[in-house]
């Protein structure tokens, strides 16, 4: 049964495109729960859980964590959610994850509402990521261990190879909403809002 209050937004776009920041604001303003798989995994690493110890080398290398782990994490997060009001940031990242999510959402009766795709040129992405690392260091905070130029380039490559096919997956279903991701945070946010159902 389709629940009218359900809302499922999936943010697509390469690392450094601003998905996290924009998803955070959209979640706050629309009463949605942001599910960021990168944040969940970093939290496990920070707490030194078994999962955290297992995935740390993968995050440090800019490689993807196996699909089965991510799918189980998401299944847990969505279990019992009623209504389903979520923004996914960083998930799905492979076709297998997208197909598993389609099935989970079907079980929950909560179809995808929109998939904004943040479009930003490659060189701008690397600059933003390296800058994010430097700014964290300047504030005396620990920078993300994968916010270095070398790992950022690896993450872009992984995105192109494994995540870009999702553009076709959601495009074919009529969910894709391409958005120009270059501009101020407010400008980009307004563009995203203009595509929301
Ligand atoms: P993010 O914060 O989204 O840039 O994710 C940081 C890192 O966490 C990625 O480079 C991957 O190693 C891992 N990760 C996050 N989400 C996923 C996912 N959906 N599938 C596989 N690995 C992921």
Main features:
197 residues, two-stranded parallel sheet, single chain, three-stranded parallel sheet, Rossmann fold, binds adenosine monophosphate, globular, alpha/beta
What's this model, at a glance?
The chain is an alpha/beta fold and 197 residues long. It contains 9 helices and 5 strands.
Number of discrete helical segments: 9
The radius of gyration over CA amounts to 16 Å
Task: Encode the helix/strand succession as letters.
Answer: EHEHHHEHEHHHEH
The count of strands amounts to 5
**Low-confidence blocks of residues:** none
What ions, cofactors and ligands are bound?
Answer: adenosine monophosphate
Quote the CATH topology of the domain at 7-120 and 178-195. Answer: Rossmann fold
Q: What proportion of the residues is helical, as a percent range?
A: 55-70%
The CATH architecture of the domain at 7-120 and 178-195 comes to 3-Layer(aba) Sandwich
CATH C-level of the domain at 7-120 and 178-195:
Alpha Beta
Overall geometry = globular
Average pLDDT score? 94
State the major sheet. 3 strands, parallel
- Beta-sheet strand percentage? 5-15%
Q: Structural class, judged by helices and strands?
A: alpha/beta
CATH H-level superfamily title of the domain at 7-120 and 178-195? P-loop containing nucleotide triphosphate hydrolases
Termini gap: 20 Å
The largest beta-sheet arranges its strands as 1-3-2
């Amino acid at each position: 049964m389709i629940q009218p209050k359900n809302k499922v937004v999936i943010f697509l776009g390469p690392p450094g495109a601003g998905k996290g920041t924009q998803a955070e604001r959209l979640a706050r303003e629309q009463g949605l729960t942001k599910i960021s798989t990168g944040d969940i995994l970093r939290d496990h690493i920070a707490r030194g859980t078994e999962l955290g110890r297992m995935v740390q080398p993968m995050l440090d290398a800019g490689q993807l964590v196996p699909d089965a782990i991510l799918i189980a994490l998401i299944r847990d997060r969505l279990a019992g959610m009623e209504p389903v009001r979520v923004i996914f940031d960083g998930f799905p990242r492979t076709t297998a994850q997208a197909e598993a999510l389609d099935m989970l959402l079907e079980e929950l009766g909560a179809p995808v509402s929109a998939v904004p795709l943040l479009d930003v040129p490659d060189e701008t992405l690397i600059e933003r990521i390296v800058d994010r690392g430097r700014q964290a260091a300047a504030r005396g905070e620990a920078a993300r261990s994968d916010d270095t130029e070398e790992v950022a380039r690896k993450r872009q490559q992984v995105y192109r190879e494994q995540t870009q096919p999702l553009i076709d997956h959601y495009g074919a279903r009529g969910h894709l909403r391409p958005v120009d991701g270059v501009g101020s945070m407010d400008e980009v946010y307004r563009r995203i809002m203009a595509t929301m159902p």
